[in-house]
Design goal:
Ubiquitin-like (UB roll); nine-stranded mixed beta sheet; 260 residues; 25% strand; alpha/beta
Length: 260
């Protein structure tokens, strides 16, 4: 009997709590219908690492492409449209917009983080970890590896997105994997100062020290190619006496081809 009594009390308390939440929710919706937007609060979540976008930039984007939000009823602020406006900016990876009971419109920004920069003549652009290409930004330059020369990507000025050509997409995926490998290696991240693409489409690695240029070939099988570069420094270079090599070709499996 006591167990039934305790169950009844617990059930009644649960129902009362649910009813209270429903009432508070209804009041909250009513308050929201009456409140107007009193300001915009922008938070850039990765501002300690990247500075592509400022809070002033975000406010300007919203005002320009969304329109008037100040004084607008909170329940009529189109949060999805604001997010679409901001997500359309090439340097913004993701935005989240929401309103709070004090009348503030809040926007959280995550910036797009490049892993490599390409420079082809006067046209420069970044690519992020996913292979998304976006233009250089006027107010900030990210310190990432730069690849110049005869880059086999069809990218016009202002382009943003992924390559549509499968061959170009595979090449870019290889580049991203390669620069990630370099970045994870203390030896190579400190040694390689320039990467260029020659007229044959071969990657050429230029080290900080020495006269040699390493012909690397395509951005594939890069772990084995860097291993051959290590073998050059470990075995070939100490034995070459006073001979200076102009190029060291490591693009072929099992071969290190040195030319004066």
């Amino acid at each position: 009997m006591k167990a039934v009594y305790r169950y009844s009390i617990a059930f009644a308390a649960t129902i009362a709590a649910i009813c209270l939440l429903v009432v508070l929710s209804a009041l909250s919706r009513e308050d929201r219908r009456q409140l107007t937007c009193s300001g915009l609060q922008v938070d850039i979540l990765d501002s300690t690492r990247l500075s592509f976008v400022s809070k002033a930039d975000v406010k300007r984007y919203v005002e320009k492409d969304y329109g008037v939000y100040m004084g607008q009823k909170l329940d009529s602020v189109n949060l999805k449209k604001i997010e679409n406006v901001l997500d359309g900016r090439s340097a913004i990876l993701k935005s989240e917009a929401y309103v709070t009971g004090d009348g503030m419109l809040h926007v959280l920004i995550t910036q797009r983080e490049p892993v490599v920069r390409f420079q082809k003549g006067d046209t420069g652009y970044y690519a992020d970890e996913t292979g998304f290409i976006f233009p250089l930004q006027t107010n900030y330059t990210s310190r990432v590896p730069i690849i110049d020369g005869n880059i086999p990507l069809t990218v016009s000025a202002g382009f943003k997105g992924s390559p549509s050509d499968e061959k170009e997409k595979r090449w870019l995926e290889g580049i991203i994997g390669m620069v990630r490998f370099i970045g994870n290696s203390k030896t190579w991240s400190e040694s390689i100062v320039q990467i260029t693409v020659d007229e044959r489409g071969d990657l050429v690695m230029i080290p900080r020290k020495g006269q040699e240029k390493f012909i690397f070939g395509k951005p594939d099988d890069y772990k084995a190619k860097f291993s051959r570069m290590e073998d050059y420094y470990r075995y070939v270079l100490p034995a070459k006496s006073d001979m200076d090599y102009r190029t060291v070709n490591v693009k072929y499996d099992g071969q290190i081809i040195c030319r004066k």
